[in-house]
Every structure is written in C-alpha cells, then in structure tokens.
C-alpha cells in the first residue's frame, strides 16, 4: 500500500505484482453497424410479404362491402350464393337448366334463349354467381370439386328435383368436367361451351399441349404458369406494373377473333360487367385461375363414361377460331372420350354463345337431339 506522499504502485489490488487488465471498451456504433444489413433484410422481407398478400375481399353486406341486391341461398358451410331465375316458372318447367358462367362474369350472363323456345319447350334457367363473383361469398378453400358440390346443394335448395341439365361456358365449361365426375347421378344432360383446358392434365400428348400452349400470348403463358406452379404469387403477378400480366384480365384486343370483335359491344354491355369483380379481383379472377390451372388429382381425359346406360348426353362445343382457349385441346378430349358429342364451329371465336340464335341451337341440340 502506498504511504502518505507516495505514488500508488502499478501492481494489481491483490498485490501479486501482475498488471490489472484494461477495462472493457465502452459500447460504440460498431455493433449497430453490424446489425444493419440483417435489419434491412428483415424489413425488405416484410415489405415483400405485404406486396404478395392480397387485400381481404369486400364481402357483400359487410360494413365496407357492396350491398346485397339479389336473391341468395345459404349453403351448409355458411356461405351464400346469389342466383337469378329466368324462363318459365320452375313448377311448370319441362326442362330445368343450371347455367355456370365463365371468367369475369356473373349470374346475369346466362345463355340467351328466345322467348319462343322457352315457351315451346318449357325451359327454366337458373344461373348463379360463382364463389367470389358478384354477390356470392368468396370460398378461400375452393377446389375443382367444391364448386360441383355447391351446384348440387343449390339445386336442392331451390327444389329442382333429382336431375337437372347443366350448361357451362369457358371457365364454367371446365367446371362441367368436375360435375360429370362428382355428381353425374344428378345430371340429365350437359353442354360444355368453349371450355378452358388445363395444360397439365394427364392424357394430353406433349405435341398437343405444347402446340396449344404457344398459341397463347407470352404474357398469358406466364400468368398461367404462375397460377399452376406458384398460386401464392397470383395476386402480385396480376397486379404489378413491371410487365404485362393476364391479357384476359386486361381485356387485350389481341385475344379476340374477328367474330369475337363483333360480339364485344354486346358482351361489354352486360348488366353485371361492373359488378363481377366488386368483392375483389383475387377472390374472383385470381382464384379462378389457380383452381382452373391448378394441380388436379385426376384428368378429364381419363374419365370413364358417367352415363353407361345412355341416361344423359354430353355435348362439347368449341369455336375453331378461338384465340383464348385453343380448340386443339377440345378436339383431343373429344377424340379420347367417345361418349362426348363434339360440335366445332368453323368461323367462331370464344364468344360464340353470345351470338344471336346460338343459345337456341345449343339447347335444341341438348334437349331434343337436333344438330
């Protein structure tokens, strides 16, 4: 110990003669600097995640959603389906038909049938908003099978009887295959109009699927590829502005044939053209794509005849000039499935069901066997 007037010794406090270790360095900016790249990476991930997430749908009847203006039924799982009835009263009908609308459409887009034929044959037509469209509640767990079960439940709720006819157009046409597989015992006859085809269904030879694939615009090839391989990217892909997304969603004129262009004014003036997407594009358009072009656990090309006793007929119609859904897919399906009666329209495009008088032709063929 140092005495009075003496300088302290440089030895440690325990007096063993060793020097004391230097005190630890005070915390400075170097630690934060090391953490900045990690924090920036986490921040970017959070921003990216937010960009990929679709906004919640605006449910009809909710405080922030569109109003409910039509008639709806409540399904067993709590969802609602909005529907529209036309033709003769169902109690007087000889033929009860459910129409399934296509992409970016709604319940008012049912097949156009003349009043004369409606009265002559006693036709009742029920059309409905598919889940997420118009005023029908979204179905986040929607699959190719669930819509077929929805149709059967809708028919039961409205007391259509044990069997009814089905007509489906475009994406609604693709749904006809699911109905033929899952509810054939409920069907009196089916008309499949310009159906979307899934390029990944087994049974398509590679030359057929690839030829059809390259008939799409490049932007649609990418949109369909994303819907199949990365459905979680569908919202971002079809809403980002870096490069063109689905040309069908944007209504690109390049996808319409000459006859389609003549139909567009009639198609664009539909009653619900502004309401089909009103609950949000993701639960209507994008989910339609991810289901339609998704990974099905079976293929329509490998189906057995659902009506081995000729209980019902299946008619497949397609326009040879269809630039949206390549006709080669339907041609091959008709070749593989001899129980399907195929009708190809040589000059028609995708919108042929809208043409004057075409609805009558389709129903006369299905209901009366006329060609």
TrEMBL record:
InterPro entries: AB_hydrolase_1 (IPR000073), AB_hydrolase_fold (IPR029058). Residues 1-31 are annotated as: Disordered. It holds the Pfam family Abhydrolase_1. Residues 97-352 form the AB hydrolase-1 domain. It comes from the Eukaryota. This is AB hydrolase-1 domain-containing protein. It comes from Triticum aestivum.
């Amino acid at each position: 110990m140092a005495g009075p007037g003496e300088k302290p010794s440089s030895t440690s406090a325990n007096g063993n003669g060793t020097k004391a270790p230097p005190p630890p360095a005070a915390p400075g900016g170097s630690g934060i600097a090391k953490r900045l790249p990690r924090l920036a990476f986490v921040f970017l991930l959070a921003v990216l995640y937010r960009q990929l997430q679709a906004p919640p749908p605006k449910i009809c009847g909710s405080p922030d959603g569109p109003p409910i203006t039509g008639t709806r039924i409540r399904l067993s799982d709590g969802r609602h389906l909005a529907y529209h009835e036309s033709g003769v009263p169902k109690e007087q009908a000889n033929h009860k038909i459910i129409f399934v609308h296509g992409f970016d459409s709604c319940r008012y887009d049912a097949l156009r049938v003349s009043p004369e034929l409606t009265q002559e044959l006693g036709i009742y037509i029920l059309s409905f908003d598919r889940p997420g469209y118009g005023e029908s509640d979204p179905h986040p767990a929607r699959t190719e099978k669930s819509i077929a079960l929805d149709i059967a439940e809708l028919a039961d709720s409205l007391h259509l009887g044990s069997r009814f006819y089905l007509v489906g157009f475009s994406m609604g046409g693709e749904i006809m295959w699911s109905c033929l597989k899952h509810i054939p015992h409920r069907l009196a006859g089916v008309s499949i109009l310009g159906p979307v085809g899934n390029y990944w269904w087994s049974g398509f030879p590679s030359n057929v699927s690839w030829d059809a694939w390259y008939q799409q615009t490049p932007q649609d090839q990418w949109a369909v590829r994303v819907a199949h391989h990365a459905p979680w990217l569908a919202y971002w892909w079809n809403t980002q502005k870096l490069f063109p997304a689905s040309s069908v969603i944007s209504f690109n004129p390049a996808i319409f044939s000459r006859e389609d262009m003549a139909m567009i004014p009639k198609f664009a003036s539909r009653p619900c053209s502004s309401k089909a997407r009103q609950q949000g594009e993701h639960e209507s358009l994008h989910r339609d794509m991810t289901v339609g072009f998704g990974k099905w656990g079976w293929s329509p090309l490998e189906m057995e005849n659902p009506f081995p006793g000729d209980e019902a007929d299946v008619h497949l119609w397609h326009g040879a000039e269809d630039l949206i859904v390549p006709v080669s897919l339907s041609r091959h399906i008709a070749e593989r499935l001899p129980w399907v009666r195929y009708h190809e329209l040589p000059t028609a495009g995708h919108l042929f069901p809208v043409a004057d008088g075409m609805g009558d032709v389709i129903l006369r063929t299905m209901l009366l066997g006329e060609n």
